[in-house]
Amino acid sequence: MSKLKVAVIVGSSRRESINRKLAEALVRLVGDRMEPHFVPIDDLPMYNQDLEGARPQAVNRFTQQIAAADALLFVTPEHNRSLPAVLKNAIDWGSKPMDRNVWKGKVVAITGTSPSAIGTAVGQQHLRQVLGILGSLVIGGEAYISFKPDLMDEAGDIANASTRTFLLAYMDAYLALAAKVVG
Question: Domain residue spans in the chain?
Fold first, then answer.
């Protein structure tokens, strides 16, 4: 089988997002074992069913990119103990209409980072619930990363050895499961 096509979705539109930095580090960490595609979500208009008849170009681009992926990797912050509005909006666009739900059957890994001690735990739990309802196959295990000054080196790679080992094992399990499901 060829390399897995993985859509990488960062739940933050912030220019200096620590979650984007983590996503980029994860892609480098697994090397050439997957074909990553960073899928932008910050250009999507707010979901409105009135737009379904003539979907905006950004929505068509987004849903086509998700549909073309073998698997999905979400790297997201937590906003007010939930997922960020920009991410929830993207999920809503991808789930409508229900017969064109792009999330169904996709193998999903979820991680994220935050300066807090529990990382993005509660937001990830909410995202896991929403994607599960939409038919995604969310892998087990939890990857809440506390963003500390020693987490990444100047090149943007995971510098903390124990975190690197943990994230590599998490990504290995994800890629192995996705490869089995995609076949």
Answer: 4-182
